[in-house]
């Protein structure tokens, strides 16, 4: 049997690549005697570019990072040579079908989102009319709502969902969307695949030793957008409290810049910090796995939040008893940088390490329970 995995990979996003790696590894573990391949396909252009910087040293570190991600794609996902970007949905589906897969897993991450589309319809990731056994595996539609679908999209989505043998999605927003097309009891909540990963802390330790870098215990990791002007006030507060500020991209307030990490090196870095401030979903997952408290925010309510104030970030916080304590809010609503000391105390008081470990075990078991179900002949 030939099994394909249709997923995001190949950009410079640590979480994107590690979810692909975790999904690929998990599928191979339940099909040890079958051919399992990541489908070499992009429905949009992966973002591969250095951070804005006038520093030659920073640009040099970016080049190192880009090479590490290229190596990761080849060495861990076994994708070498051609992996085309195909915007035309019909051509993309024809290309995917040409591999002759017997079974295709779609996931994880926000593969089912539609905001990148320039046409009225569905993206190729919905696999409409592809002749194979199809499974959604921790897939997400991000902020797509039934009410905002066009008439054509509603028809096509009903047809596409009806062709999926097993439906496993990652968040409540996607469950709500798909419940309009299939009975709710046929939809499984499947945690993100990165919950199944074991962290090899030796890889991160080796990275830090090679850089001869010691991260102080009282450090905060700030993973921000380049134009988050409100972050200056937050950084000023942390510095006044004696924190070392570590960032994965260069900022004027950065004490340590780590923009040359590969995905597996970054996976273990979260355990070195007292706190993480981020907009990344997978940063939050990796913080939970490393036992590190975190604040998360979203850039745009329209892009990342549903009408009833749900999102993949909020859903994750609720799953671990950390909402609203770990949620900073939406940038377009204004991110308050006052009373951070009070918010931090509240966050840490609700960050129950033992409870989080138990939930991590449950999520890992839940993921493999669903995956094993799909593997039954």
Structural account:
- The protein is of the alpha/beta class and 377 residues long.
- It has two domains: 2-195 and 362-374, Rossmann fold (3-Layer(aba) Sandwich); 199-361, 3-Layer(aba) Sandwich (Rossmann fold).
- The chain has helices at residues 14-30, 56-75, 89-97, 151-162, 172-178, 201-211, 231-240, 263-267, 281-290, 301-304, 312-319, 340-350, 353-374; strands spanning 2-6, 35-38, 103-106, 133-139, 164-169, 187-189, 219-223, 244-247, 256-257, 275-278, 294-298, 327-330.
- It is globular.
- The N and C termini lie close together (11 Å).
- The mean pLDDT is 94.
Keywords:
377 residues; alpha/beta; Rossmann fold; 6-stranded parallel sheet; 12 strands; 14% strand
CATH superfamily of the largest domain: 3-Deoxy-D-manno-octulosonic-acid transferase, N-terminal domain
Topology order in helix (H) and strand (E) letters: EHEHHEEHEHEHEHEEHEHEHHEHH
Query: What distance lies between the first and last C-alpha atoms, to the nearest angstrom?
Result: 11 Å
Query: In terms of structural class, how would the helical and strand content be classed?
Result: alpha/beta
Q: What is the top-level CATH class of the largest domain?
A: Alpha Beta
Percent range for helical residues? 25-40%
Q: Please name the CATH architecture of the largest domain.
A: 3-Layer(aba) Sandwich
CATH topology of the largest domain: Rossmann fold
Parts with pLDDT < 50 across at least 5 consecutive residues? none
- Tell me the overall shape: globular
**Radius of gyration computed on alpha carbons:** 21 Å
Main β-sheet, spatial strand arrangement: 2-1-3-4-5-6
Binned strand content: 5-15%
Beta strand count: 12
Number of helices: 13
């Amino acid at each position: 049997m030939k099994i394909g995995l249709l997923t995001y990979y190949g950009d410079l996003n640590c979480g994107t690549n590690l979810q692909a790696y975790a999904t690929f590894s998990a599928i191979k573990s339940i099909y040890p005697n079958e051919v399992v391949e990541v489908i070499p396909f992009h429905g949009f252009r992966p973002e591969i570019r250095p951070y804005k910087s006038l520093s030659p040293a920073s640009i040099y570190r970016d080049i190192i990072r880009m090479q590490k991600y290229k190596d990761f794609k080849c060495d861990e996902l076994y994708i070498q040579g051609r992996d085309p970007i195909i915007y035309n949905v019909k051509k993309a589906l024809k290309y995917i079908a040409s591999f002759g897969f017997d079974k295709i897993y779609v996931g994880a991450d926000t593969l089912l989102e539609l905001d990148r589309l320039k046409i009225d319809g569905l993206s190729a990731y919905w696999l409409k009319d592809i002749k194979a056994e199809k499974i959604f595996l921790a897939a997400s539609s991000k902020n797509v709502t039934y009410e905002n679908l066009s008439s054509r999209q509603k028809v096509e989505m009903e047809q596409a969902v009806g062709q999926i043998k097993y439906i496993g999605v990652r968040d409540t927003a996607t469950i709500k969307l798909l419940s309009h097309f299939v009975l709710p009891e046929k939809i499984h909540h499947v945690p993100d695949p990165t919950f199944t990963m074991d962290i090899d802390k030796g890889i991160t330790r080796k990275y830090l030793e090679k850089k001869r870098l010691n991260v102080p215990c009282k450090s905060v990791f700030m993973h921000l957008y380049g134009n988050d002007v409100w972050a200056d006030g937050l950084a000023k507060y942390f510095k006044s409290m004696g924190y070392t500020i570590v960032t994965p991209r260069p900022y004027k307030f950065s004490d340590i810049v780590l923009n040359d990490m590969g995905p597996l090196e970054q996976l273990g870095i979260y355990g070195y910090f007292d706190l993480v401030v981020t907009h990344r979903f997978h940063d939050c997952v990796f913080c939970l796995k490393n036992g590190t408290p975190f604040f998360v925010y979203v850039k745009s309510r329209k892009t990342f939040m549903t009408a009833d104030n749900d999102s993949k970030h909020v859903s994750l916080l609720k799953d671990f008893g950390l909402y609203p304590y770990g949620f900073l809010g939406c940038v377009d609503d204004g991110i308050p940088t006052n009373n951070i000391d009070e918010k931090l105390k509240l966050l840490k008081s609700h960050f129950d390490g033992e409870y989080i470990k138990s939930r991590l075990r449950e999520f890992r078991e839940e993921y493999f329970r669903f995956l094993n179900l799909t593997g039954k002949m």
